[in-house]
Amino acid sequence: MYQCTTPPIRSRKARRVHAEAQRFIKKWRRQSKGARPYVRVRFLGKKRRVFIDDFHYHIETKSFPDMTGRYRLVPCVKELLLHTTDEPATTKDGNLMLEGMTPEGERFKVIIRPEKKGACLQSFFPV
After folding, report:
1. Cα 17–18–20 angle (5° rounding)?
2. Can you give the pTM of this predicted structure?
3. Do residues 112 and 88 lie in contact, with contact meaning Cβ atoms separated by under 8 Å?
4. Contact at 8 Å (CB) between 71 and 17?
5. Residue 39: which of 29, 123, 109 has the closest Cα?
6. CA 78, CA 71: separation in Å to the nearest integer?
7. 52-82 pLDDT tens trace
8. CB of 96 within 8 A of CB of 112?
9. Which pLDDT score, from 0 to 100, does residue 35 have?
10. Phi/psi at 108 (nearest 5 deg)?
11. CB-based contacts of 56: which residues, under 8 Å, 6+ apart?
12. What per-residue string of b and e applies to 10-25 under the rule 16 or more CB within 10 Å gives b?
């Protein structure tokens, strides 16, 4: 389990959490090169990528309080993907699962779907 140093989004109002998360995601996308935004990771072997282009569609199908709780974790998820060297567990669907912990001690899981050229961030949620 990876211990994050980046705090989650601290806003209490749901609208502020959503706005700040969208700004963070937009900035995150601009930092990557190429047509599909991605993050280079260490745990899948050398020079592997995790694409970050479609995870928010899954999160926006959830209930409003659940969606807000997930969006609060976006900075921690980015740090986990960038810096963890833990080997991911495999789920029954064939996806990869990583666990992390925020600086406040809140645990969360990240689900990554393997693809031909790397992997794709599918979802993340608090435990």
Report:
1. 65
2. 0.89
3. yes
4. yes
5. 29
6. 12
7. 887 878 888 899 999 999 999 999 999 999 8
8. yes
9. 79
10. -145, 160
11. 25
12. ebeeeeebbebbeeeb
